[in-house]
Specification:
By secondary structure, the chain is an alpha/beta fold. Helix content is about 40%, strand content about 15%. The strands form 2 sheets. Strands 5-4-1-6-7-8-9 form a 7-stranded parallel β-sheet. The chain has a two-stranded antiparallel ribbon with strand order 2-3.
């Protein structure tokens, strides 16, 4: 079945921000006297506060979790967001998708303010059909909410033209196992990129249908990628295809 839309994660996929989110969380943890090594924190990047804090600090109640999440958001905006760079090929990949007549969706659990910043950083406002933020959902990845809302919003956008969209007609591009898990819970296949620095075996185990070093490698292989050579998603992981260009991160 032809792909009608690509749902792009942003952090770690289109922009190089994962390590900066680690740094922001480490600032927050130091302020409350909690100590974790960077890898432990990195392994939770891709989750929102509602999933990350219970994993690392299970004794924190909901109010404390919310306060820590706000502290992270402030630290990231005040100290780190201006250091975020877009990955090579990110805008070109979105332009290629858009130019192929496929809808571009930014399916992120970033804050609305962060999303606005990234839209300007990537210079893609005119290409994006719809987008999501943390304000749209109760639960972050790996819960299915973000992609469920993205599908709903996309359906409304396409519905204006008398079209409809199903999970089998979209594909996700993301960098974390939480992207892959959240997508699969909605019946959506995921292309994983290594730019988020998660090991191949972790991305495979989550159910990624393809692995690329980064969005530039995906762009280089665009015509042969699952975006064009659409895959079917069912209860079992789809056959994995791997590219070889670029550096590996595992």
């Amino acid at each position: 079945m032809a792909v009608k839309a690509v749902l792009f994660d942003i952090d770690g996929t289109l922009v190089d921000s994962n390590d900066l989110h680690v740094a922001a969380w480490q600032d927050v943890f130091r302020d409350i006297g909690a100590a974790f090594d960077d890898q432990t924190v990195h392994d939770q990047i891709g989750k929102g506060t509602d999933m990350l804090i219970p994993t690392l600090l299970p004794d924190k109640d909901e109010a404390e979790q919310e306060a820590l999440g706000k502290a992270h958001g402030t630290a990231f905006k005040d100290r780190y967001i201006d250091q975020v760079k877009s990955f090579a090929g990110a805008r070109d990949l979105l332009a290629r998708v858009h130019g192929a007549g496929i809808k571009v969706v930014l399916a992120s659990s970033a804050s609305g303010e962060d999303l606005e910043h990234y839209l300007d950083l990537l210079d893609v406002r005119d290409m994006v059909a719809t987008s999501t933020t943390s304000d749209d959902v109760e639960n972050s990845k790996p819960a299915p909410d973000i992609f469920a809302v993205a599908l709903e919003k996309l359906g409304k956008t396409l519905g204006e033209k008398g079209e409809a969209v199903t999970a089998s007609e979209v594909i996700v591009v993301g960098d974390t196992p939480y992207d892959v898990e959240a997508a699969r819970k909605n019946g959506i296949a995921t292309i994983a990129v290594r730019s988020g620095k998660f090991p191949d075996d972790v991305l495979r185990a989550a159910g990624a249908v393809a692995l690329y070093d980064d969005v530039a490698a995906l762009l280089a292989d665009f015509e042969a990628s699952p975006i064009i050579a659409a895959v079917e998603t069912d209860a079992e992981p789809a056959p994995l295809r791997e590219d070889v260009p670029g550096d590996r991160y595992d």
